[in-house]
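Lab intake sheet, docking and co-folding queue.

SAMPLE TYPE: protein with bound small molecule
LIGAND NAME: zinc ion
LIGAND FORMAT: SMILES
REQUESTED OUTPUT: full 3D complex as C-alpha coordinates
PRIORITY: normal
SUBMITTED BY: R.K., bench team

The fields below were copied directly from the construct record.
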Amino acid sequence: MSMAAGEYVSVSSQADTEAADLKRERRELAEDPEHELEELTRIYESRGLDRPTAEIVARKLTTHDVLGAHKRDELGLSEAAEAKPLQAAMASALTFTVGAALPLLVVLLLPVTLLVPAVSVASLLFLALLGGVGARAGKAPLMPSIIRVTFWGALAMALTAGIGKLAGAVV
Ligand SMILES: [Zn+2]
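RESULT FIELD (auto-filled):
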Protein backbone atom coordinates (compact mmCIF):
# COMPACT_ATOMS: atom_id res chain seq x y z
CA MET A 1 0.00 0.00 0.00
CA SER A 2 2.81 2.44 0.87
CA MET A 3 4.57 1.74 -2.43
CA ALA A 4 1.29 2.21 -4.34
CA ALA A 5 0.53 5.45 -2.47
CA GLY A 6 4.05 6.77 -3.07
CA GLU A 7 3.84 5.88 -6.74
CA TYR A 8 0.41 7.52 -7.05
CA VAL A 9 1.61 10.77 -5.46
CA SER A 10 4.80 10.87 -7.53
CA VAL A 11 3.12 10.14 -10.88
CA SER A 12 0.25 12.50 -10.03
CA SER A 13 2.61 15.43 -9.54
CA GLN A 14 4.28 14.49 -12.83
CA ALA A 15 0.84 14.51 -14.50
CA ASP A 16 0.07 17.92 -12.94
CA THR A 17 3.33 19.33 -14.30
CA GLU A 18 2.59 17.96 -17.76
CA ALA A 19 -0.94 19.37 -17.71
CA ALA A 20 0.38 22.78 -16.63
CA ASP A 21 3.00 22.71 -19.41
CA LEU A 22 0.34 21.89 -21.97
CA LYS A 23 -1.95 24.65 -20.72
CA ARG A 24 0.87 27.20 -20.98
CA GLU A 25 1.76 25.91 -24.45
CA ARG A 26 -1.86 26.19 -25.58
CA ARG A 27 -2.00 29.80 -24.36
CA GLU A 28 1.30 30.71 -26.05
CA LEU A 29 0.06 29.19 -29.31
CA ALA A 30 -3.10 31.30 -29.14
CA GLU A 31 -1.28 34.50 -28.22
CA ASP A 32 1.80 34.37 -30.44
CA PRO A 33 1.58 31.76 -33.22
CA GLU A 34 4.41 33.39 -35.23
CA HIS A 35 6.85 33.09 -32.35
CA GLU A 36 5.76 29.49 -31.75
CA LEU A 37 6.33 28.60 -35.41
CA GLU A 38 9.83 30.09 -35.23
CA GLU A 39 10.45 28.14 -32.02
CA LEU A 40 9.43 24.88 -33.69
CA THR A 41 11.59 25.67 -36.74
CA ARG A 42 14.64 26.23 -34.48
CA ILE A 43 13.99 22.92 -32.74
CA TYR A 44 14.08 21.05 -36.05
CA GLU A 45 17.20 22.97 -37.08
CA SER A 46 18.93 21.99 -33.84
CA ARG A 47 18.10 18.37 -34.66
CA GLY A 48 19.99 18.54 -37.92
CA LEU A 49 17.63 19.90 -40.59
CA ASP A 50 18.79 22.85 -42.69
CA ARG A 51 16.80 26.09 -42.37
CA PRO A 52 14.54 25.70 -45.45
CA THR A 53 13.67 22.06 -44.62
CA ALA A 54 13.05 22.95 -40.96
CA GLU A 55 10.68 25.72 -42.07
CA ILE A 56 8.74 23.34 -44.32
CA VAL A 57 8.50 20.66 -41.61
CA ALA A 58 7.46 23.18 -38.93
CA ARG A 59 4.81 24.70 -41.21
CA LYS A 60 3.39 21.31 -42.26
CA LEU A 61 3.24 19.99 -38.70
CA THR A 62 1.70 23.26 -37.50
CA THR A 63 -1.18 22.91 -39.97
CA HIS A 64 -1.52 19.19 -39.22
CA ASP A 65 -1.64 19.25 -35.38
CA VAL A 66 -0.07 22.30 -33.83
CA LEU A 67 -0.45 21.35 -30.16
CA GLY A 68 0.67 17.78 -30.86
CA ALA A 69 3.86 19.02 -32.55
CA HIS A 70 4.75 21.35 -29.66
CA LYS A 71 3.82 18.73 -27.09
CA ARG A 72 6.09 16.13 -28.68
CA ASP A 73 9.00 18.16 -30.00
CA GLU A 74 9.20 21.09 -27.58
CA LEU A 75 7.96 19.62 -24.29
CA GLY A 76 9.18 16.09 -25.03
CA LEU A 77 5.88 14.49 -23.99
CA SER A 78 4.78 11.39 -25.87
CA GLU A 79 1.62 9.32 -25.89
CA ALA A 80 3.53 6.21 -24.77
CA ALA A 81 5.19 7.91 -21.79
CA GLU A 82 2.08 9.74 -20.57
CA ALA A 83 1.83 9.88 -16.76
CA LYS A 84 -0.99 7.59 -15.58
CA PRO A 85 -1.11 7.74 -11.76
CA LEU A 86 -3.78 5.09 -11.16
CA GLN A 87 -2.20 2.60 -13.53
CA ALA A 88 1.24 3.18 -11.97
CA ALA A 89 -0.19 2.73 -8.45
CA MET A 90 -1.93 -0.53 -9.40
CA ALA A 91 1.23 -1.89 -11.02
CA SER A 92 3.23 -1.01 -7.88
CA ALA A 93 0.68 -2.55 -5.53
CA LEU A 94 0.54 -5.77 -7.54
CA THR A 95 4.28 -6.23 -8.09
CA PHE A 96 5.23 -5.37 -4.50
CA THR A 97 2.60 -7.76 -3.14
CA VAL A 98 3.83 -10.60 -5.33
CA GLY A 99 7.47 -9.78 -4.52
CA ALA A 100 6.80 -9.64 -0.77
CA ALA A 101 4.81 -12.89 -0.84
CA LEU A 102 7.92 -14.89 -1.83
CA PRO A 103 9.93 -14.30 1.40
CA LEU A 104 6.68 -14.75 3.36
CA LEU A 105 6.40 -18.26 1.91
CA VAL A 106 9.82 -19.00 3.38
CA VAL A 107 8.56 -17.79 6.78
CA LEU A 108 5.66 -20.25 6.60
CA LEU A 109 7.83 -23.18 5.56
CA LEU A 110 10.87 -22.90 7.86
CA PRO A 111 11.32 -23.29 11.66
CA VAL A 112 11.45 -20.07 13.72
CA THR A 113 15.11 -20.54 14.74
CA LEU A 114 16.26 -20.26 11.13
CA LEU A 115 14.06 -17.29 10.22
CA VAL A 116 16.50 -14.38 10.18
CA PRO A 117 19.27 -15.95 8.06
CA ALA A 118 16.83 -17.95 5.90
CA VAL A 119 14.63 -14.95 5.04
CA SER A 120 17.69 -12.80 4.31
CA VAL A 121 19.25 -15.36 1.98
CA ALA A 122 15.92 -16.25 0.35
CA SER A 123 15.10 -12.56 -0.20
CA LEU A 124 18.43 -12.01 -1.96
CA LEU A 125 17.88 -15.10 -4.12
CA PHE A 126 14.37 -13.92 -5.04
CA LEU A 127 15.73 -10.43 -5.81
CA ALA A 128 18.33 -11.95 -8.13
CA LEU A 129 15.62 -14.07 -9.76
CA LEU A 130 13.28 -11.08 -10.23
CA GLY A 131 16.17 -8.98 -11.57
CA GLY A 132 16.73 -11.72 -14.14
CA VAL A 133 13.03 -11.94 -15.02
CA GLY A 134 12.88 -8.15 -15.43
CA ALA A 135 15.92 -8.12 -17.70
CA ARG A 136 14.55 -11.01 -19.77
CA ALA A 137 11.17 -9.27 -20.12
CA GLY A 138 12.85 -6.05 -21.29
CA LYS A 139 15.35 -7.97 -23.48
CA ALA A 140 18.25 -6.38 -21.53
CA PRO A 141 21.50 -8.19 -20.57
CA LEU A 142 20.92 -10.48 -17.55
CA MET A 143 23.95 -10.01 -15.33
CA PRO A 144 23.98 -6.20 -14.84
CA SER A 145 20.31 -6.29 -13.86
CA ILE A 146 20.74 -9.22 -11.45
CA ILE A 147 23.80 -7.63 -9.82
CA ARG A 148 22.11 -4.22 -9.52
CA VAL A 149 18.92 -5.52 -7.93
CA THR A 150 20.76 -7.87 -5.56
CA PHE A 151 23.35 -5.27 -4.53
CA TRP A 152 20.81 -2.53 -3.70
CA GLY A 153 18.54 -5.07 -2.02
CA ALA A 154 21.41 -6.31 0.16
CA LEU A 155 22.40 -2.73 1.01
CA ALA A 156 18.81 -1.82 1.95
CA MET A 157 18.58 -4.93 4.16
CA ALA A 158 21.92 -4.18 5.84
CA LEU A 159 20.94 -0.55 6.51
CA THR A 160 17.52 -1.57 7.85
CA ALA A 161 19.09 -4.18 10.15
CA GLY A 162 21.70 -1.60 11.26
CA ILE A 163 19.06 0.95 12.16
CA GLY A 164 17.13 -1.77 14.02
CA LYS A 165 20.27 -2.57 16.04
CA LEU A 166 20.81 1.10 16.90
CA ALA A 167 17.18 1.49 17.97
CA GLY A 168 17.29 -1.80 19.85
CA ALA A 169 14.36 -3.25 17.91
CA VAL A 170 13.85 -5.56 14.95
CA VAL A 171 12.88 -3.38 11.97
ZN1 LIG B 1 5.76 25.98 -28.33
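REVIEWER NOTE: Residues 25, 28, 36, 39, 70, 74 surround zinc ion (CB under 6 Å).
SIGN-OFF: pending second check by T.M.
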